[in-house]
Protein: S1C family serine protease
Amino acid sequence: MFARILAFLLLLLGLIACSDSRSPPPAGAGSYADVVTRTAPSAVTVRVEDGVGSGVVLRSDVVVTNEHVVKTNRQVRIRYADGQESGGEVLATDPLSDLAVIRTERKNLPAAEFRDELPRPGDAVLAIGSPLGLEFTVTAGIVSGLHRTLPGGPQVELIQTDAPISPGNSGGALLDSAGRVIGINEAYIPPTQGAESLGFAIPSGVTLNVAEKLLSAGKVEHPYLGASLGDLTPEIRSRFGISAERGALVLAVEPGGPAETGGMRAGDVIVAMKGEEVGDVQDVQAVLRSSGVAERASVSVQRGEQRTELTVVLGSR
Structure:
């Protein structure tokens, strides 16, 4: 008798648990509505004669977008979240990073907040833009990966996301859950190529650096190391017996490139560059952004148990 009563109670508890799991979340739970409301005024639509894209307010009268959105146009139309429009002048573009800056006729625009550091895989993100001309559309997803490259795409490492990105999203903001811009949406791989939810964005650190140079000098020189790098995770350290605790792992070097010419090898771990400690790939990128083409850069690498000092003459893309 006791066993039958116990079985009945367990069944009842199971039904209650199943019912609870199907119940809707509390009102407002998981909503990004407040973030969207706060950040939408810094999102714009960029229209050219033969297409439409998106943009982000960088300064009170400057918008940043993709170079492939404006193409060779020097005059564009900007549409704002409040429904107003104005003209815009393309000040400068950089095809290698696929970025462009536009001066808007309208002033006193609310600049977006940019987050310079990279997000982490798994972080929640929002994409705001005008896919297929549907202005100020919001999609959600996560950061799927970092340090991605696209054949024929911009010559910078990209953020990968599964937030839906479509034609017209290009140049728009990829936001973190706090509403900070972590990237400028760049491209997606369509389902016709066997892909599903594969989108890419230019990191904010790269965007800010390139935009400032475009505004100050009208062009950008891109110093590069000529090495493919990866973060040094505990799993990689254990698997390959790497003694360095922090640094950027050299996955490959470009034949005849600056890194190889300077003596760098695949398997090296960059632990310092130009006197700055290197904890990850982002640190190397930060040093490169502040460096000049043809500059002689000191690089310390951990090679096995030995620390080796190299000098690399940075190249130009």
User: Anything to note?
Assistant: The first helix runs from residue 2 to 22. The domain at 124-217 is CATH 2.40.10.10 (Thrombin, subunit H). Residues 1-29 have pLDDT under 50 and may be disordered. The chain has three domains: 33-104, 124-217, 223-316.
